[in-house]
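In response to reviewer comment 3 from the previous cycle, which asked for concrete evidence that the modeling workflow produces usable outputs, we include below a single protein chain processed end to end. The sequence was submitted unchanged, and the resulting structure tokens are shown without manual editing.
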Amino acid sequence: MEVKIFTKTLKSKQGFWPSSESISDCGLEAEINLWLASQPNIEIKNITQSQSGGSWMPAKIVVTVWYQK
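The workflow returned the following structure tokens.
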């Protein structure tokens, strides 16, 4: 079994109150999809996601893909 880890730090909030701006993953989804497209012969076993920060610090997202060739 092998593992691929993707991380991104999201843009920090501009102010205290939430705005109507759409939230972006800063390209994380596109990065994961590009990697998956380049690995056609793998079998995904498990995917986990975690996030830290986000209150006063920028949020960091970690996506872990467990796979087998």
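The chain has a mean pLDDT of 85. We consider this sufficient to address the reviewer's concern, and the full set will be provided in the supplementary archive.
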